[in-house]
Amino acid sequence: MTDHGDEETSAPATPDGDADRIRWNWNRMCSLVLSALLAVVALVAVGTSPAAADPDGKYPTLSAHHHDDDDDYYDDYYDDDDAPPSERGPTGYSLVLPKGAIESSLTAPHHDYPAIDIAVAAGTPFYAVTSGTATRLYQAGGCGNGVTLRGDDGAKYTYCHATRISAVGRVANGQRLGLTGSTGDATGPHLHLQIAYPASTLRCPKALLVALSKGTAPPPVERLPTSGCSY
Ligand SMILES: [Zn+2]
Question: What's the whole-model pTM score?
Answer without folding.
Answer: 0.62
